[in-house]
Amino acid sequence: MKAKLTTPKNTVAIIGLGYVGLPLAVLADQKKYQVIGIDIDIEKVTKLQKKILPFKDGTLIEDLRKSTILFTTDFKKVSEARTVVICVPTPVHDNHMPDIGPVRGACEHIAAYMKPGTLVVLESTVNPGVSEEIVLPALEAKSGLKAGVDFHLAHCPERINPGDHKWDVHNIPRVLGALNPEGLKKAYAFYTSIIEAPVKKMASLKEAEAVKIVENSFRDINIAFVNELARSFSKLNINVMNVINGASTKPFAFMAHYPGCGVGGHCIPVDPYYLIEYAKQNGFNHRFLSLAREINNQMPRFTVELVQECLRAKNISLKGSKIAVLGLAYKPNVSDIRESPSLEIIKELQKEEADVVVFDPFIKNESSVHNMKDALKDVKAVIIATAHSAFTKLTPAYMRKSGVPIIVDGRNCLDGKRFSDYGIVYRGIGVSA
Ligand code: SAJ
């Protein structure tokens, strides 16, 4: 029996207004959809109602100001939407176990109000199986509607790259899977009406879920590969960056990744755990993915050990020494600290009873200093943990004038030789000047 459609065709509700949901809401608004932006965070919703961005994103503010999106915390508004897109976080707990709570919560809120004929799309990154085994039953249970008959379910994994101004929600190609062909058709019609990039139809929800996990696990294992090389080449006195750049001259079958003080963000260090755990529940142990996670998780400790080595060479103990950590964000020129290696570096330094000072131009909080001068005053060593532009522009003359004796460059973002020519001890990750 065909469900009677009671919601206007061009209404869409976006659940979760972060790095993923807000750009999507603004884009749908630009494409003349009636957009309802829903979030549980009243502070965020209030800012958005005043056309204030809750996070830094230079390109979005103008479009937000011009938009006519209805921002609300009221899930009842879902009853007015033909399409509902879930863009809530999929983090991991401290023990690295997947936390599907936000997705489950969003589904329960939606199910209470969604009308027959609704298309529900999950964009949050999840392991294969989540759409059918968690989302579908959660939506059916509280709505009394039947998936594939009374409402449709699709998965279109987000591919937002925070801080990237070349690739964004309107031009990044997407993959799309659905519970049945009719749902796939409806979801395809929605996405091709708002984005100017190919949308590849996958054969199932699970395939679409697997694509995103695979693309981010691919990145994590490749970073682990070069992180392991960096540690090995440190012993062999080989400059790993030169070797990676040499290998990059091969025009095929090599893709450069770079060693660093750790892997942060809400995607790369998180997504593999979703697959590792789900596969384990189904009888397969991803030893390789798990080892890559272990290697990457060791990099913050390795970075602190580099500081210890440089101090020891000067007969200085880490204990009681003032160490400046430059950069809290997980990647350059963003203010996002989710899973940031800097947090682990700070913890490791505090375990060694160092006197830690933190400076990040994108993040001002009570536990950090708010300018470079205060950060560098009387330090025994500096760790560059994020390659913010402000840090890559640091000069040897400035650092010597500031009295910095040691630099451990966790992002290999400085030219070490220039600093060692000024008598500053420089160590990178797999690089020594
Ligand atoms: N990192 C390295 N070495 C590398 C690349 C990254 O140590 O060679 C570190 C970064 O410093 C950071 C972490 O890994 O701490 C993640 O960096 P990222 O550049 O992957 O940034 P993300 O987390 O914003 O990843 C996003 C992802 N996009 C989506 O999930 C939709 C990822 O799939 C993209 O590949 C990535 O952007 C990108 O290409 O920039």
The shape, in one word, is elongated
Give the end-to-end Cα distance, rounded to a whole number of Å: 72 Å
Rg, Å, rounded: 24 Å
Percent helix: 25-40%
Low-confidence stretches: none
Q: Mean pLDDT score, rounded? A: 95
Bound molecules: ligand SAJ
Please sum up the structure shown.
The chain is an alpha/beta fold. The chain has 16 helices and 13 strands.
What does this structure look like?
Helix content is 39%, strand content 13%. By secondary structure, it is of the alpha/beta class. It has an eight-stranded mixed beta sheet, sandwiched between helices. A five-stranded parallel beta sheet has the order 10-9-11-12-13. Helix 4 packs parallel to helix 5 (130-143) and helix 7 packs across helix 10 (287-297). The chain is elongated, with a radius of gyration of 24 Å. Ligand SAJ binds at residues 158-162, 215-216, 219, 223, 257-258, 260, 263-265, 267-268, 330-331.
Topology:
Layout: E1 11-15, H1 21-30, E2 34-38, H2 42-49, H3 60-66, E3 70-72, E4 83-86, H4 101-111, E5 119-122, H5 130-143, E6 152-155, E7 174-178, H6 181-194, E8 199-201, H7 205-236, H8 240-247, H9 271-281, H10 287-297, H11 299-312, E9 322-326, H12 341-351, E10 355-359, H13 372-376, E11 381-384, H14 389-392, H15 396-401, E12 406-409, H16 416-420, E13 425-428
Parallel strand pairs: 1-2, 1-4, 2-3, 4-5, 5-6, 7-8, 9-10, 9-11, 11-12, 12-13
Antiparallel strand pairs: 6-7
Helix pairs in contact: 4-5, 7-9, 7-10, 11-12
Bound molecules: ligand SAJ.
Ligand SAJ is lined by residues 158-162, 215-216, 219, 223, 257-258, 260, 263-265, 267-268, 330-331.
